[in-house]
């Protein structure tokens, strides 16, 4: 494939609750774009994007998978994300680098719990969206209820772009409200042939009223269109799309399309909307970066191939024991064989090869430019969230929000000679999954692994807090509050049986020098637990007798640490040898 123009690129993802039809939609997109020549179904384990054997066996998407395809004159970098809550990090890291998304809802189940989760994740990264209400052919399908739920549960303003002809089992075609025609899909050609025919007489009045609602929504973003609308003048389709696009880019309007991907109906209009309504990299605001982690100066990066190189590593795969790193380029150009600076890890690395990914297949390329999503081989130090740039102009991008582990499991090798192999295997799992943590229990020698589940919940196990990041951060040893004159109220009110079993314990708080993120503080919980009982339920009050956290990035100053007073026996800051 040749290099596309930046205004023709669409970096989009497919997001939804599990079983809403994401992978089925992705399969149709690839088929109608000519990237594949045979449709594979999820229930048969033959879908292109579900390439892992575990995905094929279970019929679910486990890992975010990227591919590239063309629709008309645009170039689509597509990421199909999982819908299950256990794999929420895959959605998080994908949305961090995407410019737009297609959100899919089931016409039967409507807005489901994970629908809300992924919607709010997209809100956090300001990702413009269009929507598809899928499974319109199913018994119980009701697009009106889904629209109502989008408004009430998501706080969104949906704009219905189509009307169905037939409902549930009788669903057969769609009325395009903007162009004013009925779209029919040739079943013999697996929906690839789409015809635009006049709207039947019995649907015209309803279609006219629905089109007026679209024009009204578009008029909020175009004063001239508003004037024509109020004067009762006809408004042409291109003007409507242009105004709607402004609302979509502002995350204020969410056009809604209808379809049944499994029955090969309604996917092509979604592709047209990706072209007409979702942003290119040039439409996105400049990306802020910093010369270093401590620098207050901010550099705004435009999507310019002639600008300084700046790319974010948003995903790492272990490929036959070697790393395959997925990159989003925000500025500059990257050539195969080039040496770059990993600003996050303060290390220079060589990009041996570059690829465009098609699920698990690779297309080798020599050059990637601003706006591209590619994969790189040869990067040995890079992990999810790292910034790659030119050594001549160091830049650091914001990382991504990673949920904290809440479930632990002790593992040990069957034989002593397998210990090194176990460590290597766990390390490779850590490459791929930033929510997977490993520490060695100093007493038992077992490896404790920490995994993410549905929510970010404080986890406590047997009096020990997880030793995050191998001792990076601040190590505190707590005194027995029974010996303190100024004991916390929570301890004073505790049951005597709890007091008699309390033992001091040490824990380590993950930190970057002395800077804490909100998520790290929330997982720390601002509480200390002993066998399920809250001993100190407010760290800043019970331990510090004052606020130890400032409003500037939750930075903890040395003077504030001293306020921990009687409840701290010793305090030491340790340095991560890997970052210097």
List key phrases describing it.
single chain, 580 residues, alpha+beta, disordered C terminus, globular, 25% helix
Short précis:
Helix content is 25%, strand content 28%.
Plain-language structure description:
The chain is globular. The protein has 15 helices and 32 strands. It is an alpha+beta fold.
**Please, what is the oligomeric state?**
single chain
What's the Cα radius of gyration? 27 Å
Proportion of strand residues: 25-35%
Describe the biggest sheet? Answer: 8 strands, antiparallel
- Count the E strands: 32
Alpha-beta classification: alpha+beta
Average pLDDT: 75
Q: Per the principal axes of the C-alpha atoms, what is the gross shape?
A: globular
Give the low-pLDDT segments: 450-580
Provide the spatial order of strands within the biggest beta sheet. 18-17-23-14-15-22-19-20
Number of helices: 15
What's the topology here?
Blueprint: E1 9-16, H1 22-32, H2 53-58, E2 65-71, E3 74-80, H3 88-97, E4 100-106, H4 113-124, E5 129-134, H5 143-154, E6 158-160, E7 162-165, E8 173-176, E9 181-185, E10 194-197, H6 201-219, H7 223-230, H8 237-249, E11 254-258, H9 267-277, E12 287-290, E13 299-301, E14 310-319, E15 322-331, E16 333-335, E17 339-342, E18 347-350, E19 353-358, E20 361-365, E21 367-369, E22 373-377, E23 387-389, E24 396-397, E25 407-411, H10 419-432, E26 437-440, E27 447-451, E28 473-478, H11 489-492, H12 496-501, E29 506-509, H13 518-524, E30 528-530, E31 533-536, H14 539-543, H15 558-562, E32 568-574
Parallel strand pairs: 1-3, 1-4, 4-5, 5-11, 6-11
Antiparallel strand pairs: 2-3, 7-8, 8-9, 9-10, 12-13, 12-24, 14-15, 14-23, 15-22, 16-21, 17-18, 17-23, 19-20, 19-22, 25-27, 26-27, 28-29, 28-32, 30-31
Helix pairs in contact: 6-7, 6-8
């Amino acid at each position: 494939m040749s290099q596309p123009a930046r205004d023709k690129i669409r970096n989009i993802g497919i997001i939804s609750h599990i079983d809403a039809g994401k992978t089925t939609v992705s399969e149709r997109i690839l088929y109608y774009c000519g990237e594949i020549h045979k449709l594979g179904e999820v229930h048969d384990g033959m879908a292109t994007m579900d390439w892992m054997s575990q995905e094929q066996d279970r019929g679910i998407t486990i890992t975010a998978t990227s591919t590239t395809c063309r629709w008309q004159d645009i170039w689509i970098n597509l990421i199909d994300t999982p819908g299950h809550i256990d794999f929420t990090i895959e959605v998080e890291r994908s949305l961090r680098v995407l410019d737009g998304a297609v959100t899919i809802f089931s016409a039967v189940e409507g807005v489901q719990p994970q629908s809300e989760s992924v919607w709010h994740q997209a809100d956090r990264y300001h990702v413009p969206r269009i929507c598809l209400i899928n499974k319109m052919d199913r018994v119980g399908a009701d697009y009106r209820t889904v629209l109502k739920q989008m408004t009430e549960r998501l706080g969104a303003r949906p704009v219905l772009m189509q009307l169905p002809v037939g409902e549930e089992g009788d669903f057969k075609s769609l009325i395009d409200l903007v162009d004013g025609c009925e779209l029919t899909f040739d079943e013999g050609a697996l929906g690839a042939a789409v015809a635009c025919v006049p709207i039947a007489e019995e649907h015209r009045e309803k279609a006219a009223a629905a089109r007026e609602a679209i024009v009204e929504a578009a008029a909020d973003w175009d004063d001239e269109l508003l004037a024509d609308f109020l004067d009762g003048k006809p408004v042409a389709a291109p003007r409507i799309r242009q105004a709607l696009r402004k609302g979509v880019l502002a995350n204020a309007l969410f056009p809604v399309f209808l379809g049944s991907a499994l029955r090969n109906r309604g996917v092509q209009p979604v592709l047209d909307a990706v072209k007409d309504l979702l942003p290119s990299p040039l439409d996105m605001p400049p990306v802020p970066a910093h010369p270093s982690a401590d620098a207050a100066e901010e550099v705004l990066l435009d999507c310019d191939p002639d600008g300084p190189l700046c790319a974010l590593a948003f995903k790492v795969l272990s490929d036959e024991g070697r790393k395959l790193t997925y990159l989003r380029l925000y500025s500059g150009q990257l050539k195969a064989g080039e040496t770059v600076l990993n600003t996050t890890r303060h290390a220079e690395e060589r990009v041996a090869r570059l690829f465009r990914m098609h699920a698990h297949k690779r297309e080798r390329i020599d050059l990637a430019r601003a706006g591209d999503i590619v994969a790189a081989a040869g990067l040995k130090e890079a992990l999810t969230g790292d910034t790659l740039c030119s050594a001549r102009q160091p830049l650091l991008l914001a990382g991504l929000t990673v949920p904290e582990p809440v479930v632990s499991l002790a593992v040990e090798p069957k034989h002593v000679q397998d210990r090194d192999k176990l460590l290597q295997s766990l390390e490779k799992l850590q490459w791929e999954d930033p929510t997977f943590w490993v520490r060695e229990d100093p007493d038992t020698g077992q490896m404790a692994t920490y995994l993410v589940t549905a929510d970010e919940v404080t986890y406590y196990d047997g009096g020990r807090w997880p030793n995050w990041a191998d001792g990076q951060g601040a190590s505190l040893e707590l005194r027995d509050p029974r010996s303190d004159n100024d004991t916390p109220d929570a301890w004073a009110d505790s049951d005597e049986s709890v007091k008699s079993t309390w033992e001091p314990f040490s824990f380590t708080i993950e930190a970057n020098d002395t800077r804490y993120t909100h998520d790290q503080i929330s997982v720390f919980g601002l509480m200390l637990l002993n066998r399920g009982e809250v001993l100190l339920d407010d760290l800043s009050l019970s331990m510090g007798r004052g606020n130890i956290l400032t409003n500037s990035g939750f930075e903890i100053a040395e003077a504030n640490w001293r306020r921990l007073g009687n409840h701290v026996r010793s305090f030491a800051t340790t340095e991560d040898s890997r970052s210097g």
